[in-house]
């Protein structure tokens, strides 16, 4: 009985929070949320399971969080799924992580299409196995006309490499006369990054208690609000996302002004 009451109380609280977020503060729903999904390995270790079990559970959370973010009216959800540094992990774990997009999209693509979600990817495609790239590219084609939330996977993504590549590209354009160096503004430079079609994230979430950026969107996060939680990614749920958005809505963003 006690459990039932607690459960009821929990879902009643989260529906109140959801109502408040959606109905009274719709104007300040973060348009772009970026998430560093951390803690899969520790989640598995605590259960004496192999690390890949944590990644598999984490994949299911991606589905839940995408659905809620779309319902809340978030426009872009960027998820750090594999960094340029993650290749240093044991081959068996890397292989598993590379198969996850195929499994995720093989399972959930029809639902994502039904929910009007558009799938995108940013990162270096060249090093990705063919099956990973094929799964992502098929999803991108199948969802290209969707107008709801953009689910943007950062896959084989590293922010320093992204910035270096943008610098080289800008230099080339200056050398070849396409652009003059006086025209390089922040907006122009942003247009050379992999996120050129999106606004910068309004809110960054990192799970698992780590308080660092780990080479994620270093330029784009300059004025974002940060929200950290000790919750491990496989345990992250709808209520956690609502808490993060609620915290975001209570922040005063000044962008350097007063
Ligand atoms: C970090 O946790 C997590 C990753 C490097 C992988 C994230 C991937 C997913 C959540 C699944 C992605 C799903 C799709 C659909 C592509 P960690 O392994 O570093 O955890 P630890 O710090 O506890 O060891």
CATH architectural name of the domain at 28-157 and 200-249: 3-Layer(aba) Sandwich
Specify the overall morphology: globular
* Contiguous helical run count: 8
The CATH H-level superfamily of the domain at 28-157 and 200-249 is Decaprenyl diphosphate synthase-like
| Major sheet characteristics | 6 strands, parallel
- With strands numbered from the N-terminus, the spatial order across the biggest sheet is 3-4-2-1-5-6
Residue share in β-strands: 5-15%
| Unreliable stretches covering 5 or more consecutive residues | 1-9
Oligomer description? single chain
Cα(first) to Cα(last) distance is: 51 Å
Structural class: alpha/beta
Q: What small ligands are held by the chains?
A: farnesyl diphosphate
CATH topology of the domain at 28-157 and 200-249: Undecaprenyl pyrophosphate synthetase
Determine the fraction of residues in helical runs and give it as a percent range. Answer: 40-55%
Helix and strand run: HEHHEHEHEHHEEH
CATH class of the domain at 28-157 and 200-249: Alpha Beta
Mean pLDDT: 93
Helix-strand layout with pairing:
Blueprint: H1 2-24, E1 32-36, H2 40-46, H3 51-72, E2 76-83, H4 91-114, E3 118-122, H5 130-142, E4 150-157, H6 159-175, H7 186-190, E5 203-206, E6 225-228, H8 238-249
Parallel strand pairs: 1-2, 1-5, 2-4, 3-4, 5-6
Helix pairs in contact: 1-8, 2-3, 3-4, 4-5
The structure holds farnesyl diphosphate.
The site of farnesyl diphosphate has 19 residues, from helix 2, helix 3 and helix 4.
